[in-house]
Specification:
This protein is an alpha+beta fold. It has six helices and four strands, in the order αβααββαβαα. It is globular.
């Protein structure tokens, strides 16, 4: 099934106060219009941003004395050895996929605004001009096997990556109306 077939689960997860996980996703605006050199620089800058924000999240864990980053044994960072050989991007955390990157954390630990500010801090340090579409949402499980009844991380990441696109917005509104009628 396609990720957009799970929009109903996405909508329900946003209302579910038991949804433990939170994602903030960044997708580069008009990246296809960038020259090859600028796309290569963008890729390097995204990697730098992801490392910078990840370190900030780990610092926040120490400050709060509670888990912020999801330390799941299946997850691996983009700079780990697993990232070099794995074809399964569902467990890459923080997630980087082309011109999109995302951070998954525990609900109610760090706000979207804090993460956006850290991204902007790093952009300023890198003298980076590119802008990002930003989307966020809750999801319910890291277990693919539960993805039919709970919003799975991979589907949430795919939905958020495309959330700003008009065709997904149209489908989202249709699903939302259908759920309201129930």
């Amino acid at each position: 099934m396609s990720y957009d077939e799970y929009l109903d689960l996405y909508i329900l997860a946003q209302k579910n106060t038991d949804a433990m996980y939170y994602v903030v996703s960044f997708d580069t605006v008009n990246s296809k219009l960038l020259s090859k050199d600028k796309r290569e620089a963008l890729k390097n800058n995204i990697f730098s941003i992801v490392k910078y924000v990840y370190e900030k999240l780990l610092q926040k864990e120490k400050e709060l004395n509670r888990q912020v980053v999801i330390h799941d044994e299946r997850f691996y960072t983009p700079w780990s050895n697993e990232a070099l050989v794995s074809l399964n991007h569902n467990y890459l955390d923080p997630s980087i996929f082309g011109d999109n990157f995302a951070f998954t954390i525990f609900r109610d630990t760090v706000s979207k605004d804090e993460i956006v500010e850290w991204v902007n801090e790093c952009k300023r340090k890198l003298n980076m001009e590119e802008e990002f579409h930003i989307a966020d949402g809750y999801y319910e499980t890291n277990n693919y096997g539960e993805g039919g009844s709970k919003l799975y991380r991979g589907y949430c990441l795919q939905i958020l990556e495309r959330f700003h696109k008009p065709e997904l917005q149209l489908r989202f509104k249709k699903v939302q109306k259908r759920l309201e009628r129930k």
